[in-house]
Amino acid sequence: MFLVKYPLDRICVKSGVLCPNCQRKVESGEVAREEIPIMKALMELEEDLKELRTGNYIKSFDFGDEVIVILKGDWDKVSLDKIAKELSSRLGKSAKVLLEGEGVKKLMEQLLYPATILGINTLWLPDGSEQMVVRIPRRDRKYLKGKEEKYRRFISTILGKDIKITFE
Q1: Residue of 54 and 121 predicted with greater confidence
Q2: Nearest to 120 by CA among 159, 80, 93
Q3: Which terminus of the chain is more exposed, N or C, with fewer CB under 10 A?
Q4: Which residue from 93, 103, 109 is spatially nearest to 159, judged by alpha carbons?
Q5: End-to-end CA distance of the chain, in Å?
């Protein structure tokens, strides 16, 4: 049976006691301490969901009321939605599961779904920095109501660039 690969040892995550190697990864910032409960929930889900038995765990982000998990593998939309639903019920908060490795636009489409992305532009500022502008139809603003800043911070964290979301 194949299992999802995690950056920390399974025993450390399940027990909550980190070995020196895992402790180093947490202290260096490679893995955030907030990711450990999310990894634990995913490991528990592997026993119930056969969809979750392959692939790699990349990263997760906890925004208080919502969790965003990035996985790498060959899952379809239905499987990702099923994983997200089960993870939501285990963690007691909303969860989104995204696939990594399909490009910036695809990652943003998954994150901002059901909002449609009209385009992504790069804006070079006079100080030499870059800003990505994500253009979304005005009619889809309702899907991001109250979450614009959260998604902007999330995308900025992943890409290492300043992000602006505009509605046209």
Answers
A1: 121
A2: 159
A3: N
A4: 103
A5: 48
